[in-house]
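With this grant's support, we have settled on a layout for protein records. One resulting record is reproduced below.
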Amino acid sequence: RGILCNAVDDPERCDFYYPAVVRRGQLQIAISTGGQSPALAQRLRRELEMEFGEEYSEWVEGLGKVREKLLSSELDSDHRKQLLHSLASRDAFEARRSESADEREKFHER
C-alpha cells in the first residue's frame, strides 16, 4: 500500500521510530532505543532535560556567533579548531553561567 506505520507497542511492524528529544534552542539531543524500550528513552530524556537546562539555548547561540566570527578571521584552522573546542568545554560553560547577562553580551560582541 505504501503507507508508513508507527506502532510504538509493536516494534516489529514499525517503519520508523520517533526519538525522545530534548530541545534547548538550536541544541537538540535525540534518544532512541530502536523501539526496544520507549520507557527507557523517556527516562533518559527526563534526565537530560535536567542536565541541559534552558541556559544551553543562549550558550549555543553565543557559540554560533563566535564560530561565525572565527571562520571569517585570519586564524589558521588548527588554532581556530582548538579555540572552538575550548569554548565548547564544560569549564567554559560553567564560567559563562556565572557571568552576568551584560558580560556574556560583551563577549559575543568582541
In short: The helical segments are 38-51, 55-71, 77-87, 90-97, 101-109. The chain has two domains: 11-51, 55-109. The mean pLDDT is 87. The CA atoms of residues 99 and 105 lie 10 Å apart.
